[in-house]
Amino acid sequence: MSEADKFQMEQTVEAALQDLLAELAENPVIIDYKTIEEQAKNHPKLSELAEAIKFQQKQAVKFAHYGKPVAEQEAIKQADELMREFEDHPLVVTYRQRLIEANDLLQYVTNLIEKEVNIALTLKFEDALTNYQSNEKE
């Protein structure tokens, strides 16, 4: 395969990839995921909870470092409670559901592409083998 052929093939693959990405960006599953992701990132209560969790975790580490096991356990308990509140927030629950749906879609597309590539390679290999065998007989 010449360099020009390789370059043409790379351009073809890149164009197909860009088309696929554009189609995925317009898919309702991906749109819903991106929408809920943006809402979660910009939700003040979730940001506040995340900061409080980090603070309590840092406190636990600090208390452990200074040999204060009771204070450490209390900080861990508070961090766990805040984490549960964060994880149970309706926006986080919805975000996780949309993430699973988007991941399932991407896995489906990936598997479909993989099957198509494997079929194409198998056919190409079989053609090459047939050509080789027919040349051997001559």
Mean pLDDT: 92
Distance between the termini: 25 Å
Provide a count of the helices. Answer: 5
Indicate the overall shape: elongated
Written as H for each helix and E for each strand, in order along the chain, the element string is HHHHH
Keywords:
138 residues
Verbal overview:
This protein starts with a helix and ends with a helix. Helix 3 (44-65) packs antiparallel against helix 4. It contains 5 helices and no strands. The longest helix is centred in the last third of the chain and has 48 residues, at 90-137. It is elongated. It has 138 residues and is mainly alpha-helical.
Gist?
The chain has 138 residues and is an all-alpha fold.
Chart the SSEs and their pairings.
Layout: H1 3-25, H2 28-41, H3 44-65, H4 69-88, H5 90-137
